[in-house]
Design goal:
The chain is α+β, with helices and mostly antiparallel strands. The chain contains 12 helices and 23 strands. The chain folds into 3 domains: 78 residues, 2-Layer Sandwich (Alpha-Beta Plaits); 233 residues, 3-Layer(bba) Sandwich (FAD/NAD(P)-binding domain), CATH 3.50.50.60; 193 residues, no CATH class. Helix 3 packs parallel to helix 6 and helix 3 runs parallel beside helix 12. The structure holds flavin-adenine dinucleotide.
Length: 539
């Protein structure tokens, strides 16, 4: 199999054009081409009047060897790499003990799936509910039919934080072993569209994710794994620097010397418990800011010109960054084309925003977080000080929103002019339970407000209209990533607690669905190999 990269074709090319491009590139006769498949498809929209599709193609010919020899100086022709995943271990028939996975977000789910596939029959403990029940609780809170459920919300429950999301599936983590491919393939096996394997920036969308999560749960169970919902790990037993088991909120004690900690960035009570038990934790940087909403048509027009709305391009996204005079950087984060701003609180009396989309991305607004990077220098002194700052900002947002879980909001024009907003303009905010207009300058530290005020007009130079008067800011965005890192050694075990495997976003080792899944695979492998070492070998 040969791989051809940088194969460029016009946006509206007919299907046969791909075959023609292969024949031309390789100087092949039609009979010599056995078949081809698309490995990746992206677009180049730098010239809005000439948007092109860019393919990576895997090609089978009758003369692969000869072509490779002939094209050996061409960087765009190579042997197709083998990306198949090969398990590192197989459990013995007599398992010495079953590993425990805390958390059924993408990290815990993939750790659990991999362990189950290798025969290690993991037990997954999840504080929240099954995804369908969790969806009902979350929507009831958003629509003001019910109070915030502290164990069943956007952060907690089957599928983890990424379930009510845009389901973007790309990441910039180094992935030399191609674990990301394994994650995508398992998502397709569980019902995701096969296009996620080849489009450049794949996404799944909220409702589809729900079905996929259920299907992965069924596969883990079919392979001998066990998933226990409404089972919050409240304590961890450590003896002589080695984990011995966990204690649930019900008081039940479960023994295991292999515990994967995949609790996500919002398990603040769990972080406090781990800190009290002496597990090594340090503060890490994260970002704070607001969600901004614009008409999606404005973004599409600016990015795609006359091609706006083209079926292969979909709703346009953007990625923006501005380095400010005060030394801060402001950037767009978790952009959700054609999506909704969502209430992502998991603690009482606190308001925090995030964004999600359906697969169709056809809501009227584009949203993204506009955030300022902050570091432990901004919250010195204690490993959990970043978490305390998040809590303080979220409580302030709750107050500014009127104490009913409505979020404080302001029009961009008013925010830039430093005057409170009193009425909406053309952009209707999507956040439920609702937005209370006012003055957002009270909601974040002064340095962050100054940085965002400087960045918005700079972003307007890249996307004409970004600083439009009527665009709506909704506050606050504080959970861009974990405020802590639970440091681990090269063998993925905690720096000072053997048998504890901190993983995923909460431990500071992932920043999204894909990277959390990849990290889940890494720790599952480490746990499997460690368990095998405890099995007596035949003499
Ligand atoms: C609204 C929203 C939209 C997002 N959109 C995207 C996106 O489009 N693309 C993307 O890549 N990322 C997105 N993210 C981020 C992404 O969801 C996270 O990076 C990812 O889910 C992290 O995975 P994780 O498994 O490490 O943690 P989580 O997904 O947070 O999962 C942790 C799980 O552990 C459980 N848990 C916590 N404490 C305990 C305990 N003590 N006992 C038992 N269980 C416990 C929680 O209930 C939770 O289910 C979004 C996040 C949110 C909130």
């Amino acid at each position: 199999m040969l791989r051809l990269t940088e194969v460029k074709l016009p946006l509206d090319h007919p299907e046969e054009a791909i075959k023609a491009a292969i024949l031309k590139k390789l100087h092949l006769a039609p009979d010599d081409l056995i078949g081809y498949s698309i490995f990746k498809r992206s677009y180049d929209a730098r010239k809005k009047d000439d948007i092109t599709l860019v393919y990576i193609l895997d090609v089978e010919t009758t003369q692969d060897k000869r072509l490779l020899q002939r094209c050996k100086k061409d960087p765009h022709v190579m042997v197709t790499p083998d990306l198949r995943y090969r398990p590192v271990a197989q459990a013995p028939s007599q398992l010495p003990s079953r590993p425990i996975v805390i958390g059924m977000g993408p990290c815990g789910m993939f750790a659990g799936l991999l362990l189950a596939q290798m025969g290690f029959r993991p037990i997954i403990l999840e504080r929240g509910k099954r995804v369908r029940d969790r969806t009902a609780d979350t929507f009831a809170f958003w629509r003001k039919r019910d109070e915030l459920n502290l164990e069943s919300n956007v952060q907690f429950g089957e599928g983890g934080a990424g379930t009510f999301s845009d389901g973007k599936l790309y990441s910039q983590v180094r992935d030399p072993k191609h674990y990301g491919r394994k994650v995508l393939e398992e998502l397709v096996n569980a019902g995701a569209s096969p296009e996620i394997l080849y489009v450049n920036k794949p996404h799944i969308g909220t409702f589809k994710l729900v079905g996929i999560v259920q299907s992965i749960r069924a596969r883990i169970e079919a392979l001998g794994g066990e998933i226990r919902f409404q089972s919050r790990v409240e304590d961890i037993q450590i003896e002589n620097g080695r984990v011995q088991g966990v204690i649930l909120d019900s008081g039940e004690q479960m023994d295991s010397q292999h515990v994967i900690l995949a609790v996500g960035h919002s398990a603040r009570d769990t972080f406090e418990m781990l800190f009290d038990r002496g597990v090594y934790i340090e503060a890490k940087p994260f970002s704070i800011g607001f969600r901004v909403e614009h008409p999606q048509t404005l973004i599409d027009r600016c990015r795609f010109g006359d091609y706006a709305g083209h079926r292969l391009l979909g709703a346009a996204d953007y990625k923006l960054v501005h380095h400010c005079q005060n030394g801060r950087s402001v950037y767009s984060f978790c952009m959700c084309p054609g999506g909704l701003v969502v209430a992502a609180a998991s603690e009482p009396g606190r308001v925090v925003t995030n964004g999600m989309s359906q697969y169709s991305r056809n809501e009227r607004n584009a949203n993204s977080a506009i955030v300022v990077g902050i570091t432990p220098d901004d919250y010195p002194g204690h490993a959990l000080a970043g978490m305390a700052l998040q809590r303080q900002l979220e409580s302030r947002a709750f107050e500014l929103g009127g104490g009913t879980y409505e979020a404080p909001g302001q029009l961009v024009g008013d925010f830039l002019a430093d005057r409170p907003s009193t009425a909406l303009g053309s952009v209707k905010p999507s956040y439920e339970p609702g937005v209370r207009l006012g003055d957002l300058s009270q909601s974040l530290p002064d340095y962050a407000i100054a940085a965002i005020r400087e960045a918005l007009p700079a972003f307007d130079k890249q996307i004409n209209g970004f600083a439009m008067n009527d665009a709506v800011l909704t506050g606050v965005e504080t959970r861009t990533s974990s405020p802590i890192r639970i440091k681990r050694r090269d063998d993925y075990q905690s720096l000072n607690t053997a048998g504890l495997y901190p993983a995923g976003e909460g431990a500071g080792y992932a920043g999204g669905i894909l990277s959390a899944g990849i990290d889940g695979i890494k720790v599952a492998e480490a746990v499997a190999l460690s368990i095998l070492q405890t099995v007596p070998q035949p003499v």
